[in-house]
Amino acid sequence: MRDLDVIAGELYATPPSEFVAKRDEEAKSARDAGDRTLAAALKKLARPTQGAWLVNLLWRSESDLVESLFSLGAELGAAQRALDGDEIRSLSASRQKLMSKIAAAVRRLGADRGVRITADLSREVESTLDSALADEEVAALVRSGRVVKSVTYAGFGPFGGDLSAVPTLRSVPSPAKKKSSRASSPEDEDEDAARAKAEARLADAREVLEEAEEDYTEREQAFTDMESSRDSLRERLDELREEIRDTEAQLLAAERGLRAEKRRYERAESTLEQARKRLAEAEDAAK
């Protein structure tokens, strides 16, 4: 019997539209095999969003690319903390090339499965990978290949925002700028506050979008399931109606046969009575 990790890995590489049916099939197989614990664990697995599914596929097929991105992100973070402008410039260029390869890989994975990679799907994938660069727990989730929904990094560290927004030298203050920042004007503070609010609103909007997309996916699956159930019931009803028509035809034939048999029975009964009467008369005449 296969274990939970193996089955879950396969399930999360399954298109979201097929996930629930496949999960329930695996749970039934486990239950039929007597492993109720595994069946219960499988039933608890949540269906991934389209973007999360693409992240899982990316990890399964291009783990080297993802690991390269994680390594490059660590180096870029160290360079930013050290305020090493030359290193940041070099690593940023490498990161842009790597992200182009990852974007092409995602498009290829989608095309192979008949999925068009929209801007929203791209943002979901980028957001999750971006969060993985800033959070080891998210990175571990990506490496598990069992991402359920996209993750948005809410911090303001070097990896905040989309992966497409690669840090440049403009994000690294020079010594002169550091001095002026200590004497920032009220206008600068207002601008920083406005930027922080805008980033917070953006994060909220993305979260709302993710929840809406997840709800849409669930409702779409529920609608598809109900539609399939209705079609099955219609087919069963048509079969029953056909069966009723056949039974009614058989009943009519049986009634016709019964009437004919009744007539034959009545003639036989009359013949029997006449024969008995003739026998009685013959017996009287013979005395």
UniProtKB/TrEMBL annotation:
Region (Disordered): 164-234, 263-287
Domain of life: Bacteria
Protein name, entry field: Uncharacterized protein
Biased composition regions of type Basic and acidic residues, renumbered to the chain: 193-209, 218-234
